[in-house]
């Protein structure tokens, strides 16, 4: 197997996205257990909390016939005894064929990939990236619209600290979005170093009502409380935006709302039953997408 790390959504080309989508389509319909990853061991190295990402990777691995080992918090590992990340990665190399890693530090997965002899999949590193979430986001768009090109995207919420936003913005460079609106509270604007490197223009908007009727895909994020250095700053912005039924009324027919979840208060629960609400459907695609990605890593390199 060729060594392949997935650290950023830029590690995948347009055709890689489509081939993962194809595998995901195939795996979504399979009942029971497959044998493609039989004899392989996947290590889930989760130094930060997770519900969906960890559980869906685990399910994806099991469904493909792999064995899954790992941990879900720093406290339960020798890191709590002072072991450094490099040594932990070296140890996991002895036990596993692929490491799926989540860490609070930006760049932790890249660092791990520099010493690892097995593929590293970044399952979220600090406020940097979360590439497998971007694959799920785009696959959801693809399932609904049958294309990713020529659509208007609106990214609403914390665009500064949300790693899913960085991965999505970068993944969109592989496609031809019509327009990409950025709709953050003033203190939580997307980071310059990310936006300036994109191969398409983004349009910053203050008021979602100014563009809501044009948007095909509204991508909402949670305020990333744990990334704030200053609690006072968090308090100032914490309830600065809410997607409610009033806003959704202005959305065009066929448009959708996505959210990587967990949702806190930024989407009113009354929105859940509206046709635009696709975030639970999006979450349900986590398993087939991650099966597709794992299959690709192990079978194509
Ligand atoms: C996201 C994350 O961990 O970055 N969660 C997820 O994996 N779906 C989003 C978030 O925590 O807000």
Description:
This protein is α/β, with parallel strands linked by helices. The protein folds into two domains: 9-129 and 284-299, 3-Layer(aba) Sandwich (Rossmann fold); 131-283, Rossmann fold (3-Layer(aba) Sandwich), CATH 3.40.50. The protein is 35% helix and 14% strand. The chain contains eleven helices and nine strands. Strands 7-6-5-8-9 form a five-stranded parallel beta sheet. β1 (41-46), α2 and β2 form a beta-alpha-beta unit. The radius of gyration is 19 Å and the shape is globular. The site of N-carbamoyl-L-aspartate has 11 residues, from α2 and α6.
Topology, please?
Elements: H1 14-28, E1 41-46, H2 52-63, E2 67-71, H3 85-95, E3 98-103, H4 108-115, E4 120-125, H5 131-145, E5 152-156, H6 163-171, E6 179-183, H7 192-195, E7 202-204, E8 217-220, H8 231-237, H9 245-248, E9 256-258, H10 279-284, H11 286-299
Parallel strand pairs: 1-2, 1-3, 3-4, 5-6, 5-8, 6-7, 8-9
Helix pairs in contact: 1-11, 2-11, 3-4, 5-6, 5-11
The structure holds N-carbamoyl-L-aspartate (NCD).
N-carbamoyl-L-aspartate (NCD) is lined by residues 52-53, 124, 130, 133, 163-164, 222, 260-262.
What distance separates the N and C termini?
Answer: 6 Å
> Shape, please?
globular
Quaternary class: single chain
Radius of gyration: 19 Å
- Number of separate helices: 11
Main β sheet profile = 5 strands, parallel
Name the helicity range: 25-40%
Q: What's the domain count?
A: 2
How confident overall, as mean pLDDT?
Answer: 95
Spatial strand sequence of the major β-sheet = 7-6-5-8-9
CATH superfamily of the largest domain: Aspartate/ornithine carbamoyltransferase
Strand content: 5-15%
At the first level of CATH, what is the class of the largest domain?
Alpha Beta
CATH-defined fold name of the largest domain: Rossmann fold
Bound molecules: N-carbamoyl-L-aspartate
Low-confidence stretches: none
Question: What is the element string, with H for helices and E for strands?
Answer: HEHEHEHEHEHEHEEHHEHH
CATH structural architecture of the largest domain: 3-Layer(aba) Sandwich
Q: Which structural class do you get from the secondary structure elements?
A: alpha/beta
């Amino acid at each position: 197997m060729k060594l392949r790390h997935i650290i950023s959504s830029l590690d995948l080309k347009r055709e890689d996205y489509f081939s993962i989508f194809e595998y995901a389509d195939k795996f979504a319909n399979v009942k029971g257990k497959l044998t493609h990853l039989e004899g392989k061991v996947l290590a889930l190295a989760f130094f930060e909390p997770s519900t969906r990402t960890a559980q869906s990777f685990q399910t994806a691995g099991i469904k493909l016939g792999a064995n899954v080992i790992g941990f879900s918090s720093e406290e339960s590992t020798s890191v709590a005894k002072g072991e450094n990340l490099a040594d932990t990665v070296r140890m996991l190399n002895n036990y596993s064929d692929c490491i799926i890693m989540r860490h609070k530090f930006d760049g932790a997965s890249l660092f791990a990939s520099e010493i690892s002899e097995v593929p590293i999949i970044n399952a979220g590193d600090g406020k940097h990236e979360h590439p497998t979430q971007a694959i799920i986001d785009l696959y959801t768009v693809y399932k609904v619209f049958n294309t990713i090109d020529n659509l208007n995207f609106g990214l609403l919420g914390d665009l500064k600290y949300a790693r899913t936003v960085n991965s999505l913005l970068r993944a969109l460079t592989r496609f031809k979005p019509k327009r990409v609106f950025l709709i953050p509270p003033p203190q939580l604007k997307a980071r310059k170093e990310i936006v300036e490197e994109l191969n398409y223009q983004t349009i910053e908007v203050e008021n979602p009502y100014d563009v809501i009727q044009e948007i095909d895909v509204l991508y909402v994020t949670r305020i990333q409380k744990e990334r704030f250095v200053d609690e006072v700053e968090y308090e100032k912005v914490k309830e600065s935006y809410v997607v409610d039924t009033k806003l959704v009324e202005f959305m065009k027919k066929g448009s959708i709302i996505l959210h990587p979840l967990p949702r806190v208060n930024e989407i009113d629960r009354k929105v859940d039953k509206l046709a635009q609400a696709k975030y639970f459907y999006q979450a349900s695609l986590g398993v087939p997408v991650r099966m597709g990605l794992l299959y690709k890593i192990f079978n194509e390199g």
